[in-house]
Amino acid sequence: MTATDPTISLVSFYINGNWERPVGRTGGTVINPATGALLAEVPYADESDIDKAVRAAHEAFLKWREVPVVERVQVLYRYKALLDKHTADLANVLTRENGKTADDSKLEVRRAIQMVEVACGMPSLMMGDSLNDVAAGLDCKTIRQPIGVCAGITPFNFPAMVPMWMWPFAIACGNTFVLKPSEKVPLTPTFAIQLLHQAGLPPGVMNLVHGAKPAVDALLHHPLVKAVSFVGSTPVAKYIYSTAAAEGKRVQALGGAKNHLIVMDDADMPKTVEAIISSAFGAAGERCLAGSVLVPVGDAAGPLLDLLVERTKALTVGNGAEAGVEMGPLVTSDHCKKVTGYVEKGVAEGAVPLVDGRQHTPAGKKGHFLGPTIFDHVTKDMTIAREEIFGPVLSVMRVKTLDDAIALVNQSPYGNATAIFTSSGKSAREYSSRCEVGMVGVNVGVAAPMAFFPFAGWKNSFFGDLHAHGKDAVAFYTEQKVIMSRWF
Ligand code: NAD
Fold first, then answer.
1. Is the domain of 408 the same as that of 429?
2. How confident is residue 7, by pLDDT bands cut at 50, 70 and 90?
């Protein structure tokens, strides 16, 4: 393959405050999914690279944990200002390597910045409790202390935001960090860490390596790594959770999803349709919160599907960097083939395509495009009803009652996110209470908790105890200690 993009570069590691370009490593390439152009070559870290990064992080930890928290967060304040200044630049890199639209990339960067903003509050968030005279002359208090080197392993679909679910909280708590982002989209996290370097973080506190399974395995087995945060697909999340836990590490592993959108016949249909379009086809369906199964209840199907099909057919698919484009390409050609395979399977298994994405791709484009697809009359046994597709494919499963909808949702092995659309408080309350899902939207199609709330699913969508960001992140990245004192 030859370089076709003038900005092609070899992506570097960031270890102990230095940018390093290792030689002789295996590696991969980063392709602009909208054009097919080669953007960069990525070297994959081997065990020695990981050992070097972890040891640098450990050495830095011995000093960083002694830095007062009020000083630690000063770096994050400076970093936030740099992120604000470079939002558009970071969003451009994101769109170029991931494919999501320019507006969507800016929103993602904004969400990432919010993580930093919340982590800036660590002096308050890390406070413990205290009570004097728990017995005569005996005082008791809890303190939170950092745990050491933390590792983060992240997916391709949110390369700006998901790493920031992790490391701003971890380092503000006094830990140091080694990030291994998705090898498919290494440029966005690299740019984000370049800005962090500019903000003046001491060497070794944050380290960045690239790579695939061998790099991850080296992190999971390294004795100096004390905690592992993972976000990605369910099979890998299960593997990360069991392997790291067996090594005695603290783990949070967020996995895949199959999210249901319930629509009652009393819903505001035009607004509901806009929310469904955004949920199912935003970011080309490559979101863990994407609506994948649409469940019209009772008489909702008729008016809902008429509007939805009309709106879906009018969606503009193209290069996300271009103005007016509403849906970009899929991240890689392999992923595009996989999602197209699900569309073929849906047809073969008897689902009725109301919109067939294969006939709705932009003409003359070289990228990995697949238009939005809606299947009607999908049944429980069909592959498209059961498996995570992670693309712009929406399966319609009609049910008669809200009880039927709840039963359908609760039999899924996943429990990441869901939504109900209704004007009835009673239906909304009942659904929110009885569904076995971690994140619920009421007339909200993408129920993404803000940085100050916890983020994670249930069942096969999450392995661990403490969720991502919010107060859970503070608990995850600290060890709690109880001190009882008596003075004679
Ligand atoms: P993925 O599981 O393929 O990869 C995630 C990370 O794991 C990458 O850094 C990758 O290098 C590494 N990895 C891949 N295979 C591995 C293996 N066998 N052993 C060790 N490490 C391995 O996921 P992806 O395709 O990058 O991202 C999409 C998936 O992430 C979807 O399933 C989506 O639902 C999920 N996701 C979940 C959430 C959530 O909050 N639950 C958020 C975003 C994405």
1. yes
2. low
Beta bridge partners of 478: 146
Quick one: 280 and 212 in the same domain? no
The CATH number of whichever domain residue 394 belongs to comes to 3.40.309.10
Q: Measuring from atom 30 of ligand 1, which residue has the nearest CA?
A: 232
Best substitution site from 288, 332, 368, 462 to test ligand 1's pocket, by max atoms within 8 Å of Cβ?
A: 288
Q: Are residues 62 and 90 in the same domain?
A: yes
Q: From the candidates 173, 288, 336, 435, which is the catalytic residue? A: 288
Q: What is the domain range of residue 427?
A: 259-442
Token pair for residue 58?
């450990």
Would you say residue 113 has pLDDT above 60? yes
- pLDDT cut 90: percent of the chain above it: 96
Question: Rounded to an integer, what distance in angstroms lies between the CA atom of residue 105 and that of residue 109?
Answer: 6
Structure tokens, 1: 């393959």
CATH number of the domain that 194 lies in?
3.40.605.10
Distance of alpha carbon 431 from alpha carbon 426, whole angstroms? 9
Residues 273 and 398 in one domain: yes
Section 240-268 average pLDDT: 98
**Is 481 in contact with 145 (CB distance < 8 Å)?**
yes
User: pLDDT tens digit string along 200-230?
Assistant: 999 999 999 999 999 999 999 999 999 999 9
Residues 132, 279: one domain?
Answer: no
Ligand 1 neighbours (beta carbon < 6 A): 153-158, 162, 180, 182-183, 212-213, 216, 231-233, 236, 239, 254-257, 288, 388, 390, 416, 457, 461
The reply to whether 140 belongs to the active site is no
**Mean pLDDT (the chain, rounded):** 96
Whether the full predicted model's pTM is greater than 0.85, yes or no, is yes
Decide if 64 contacts 76 (C-beta within 8 A): no
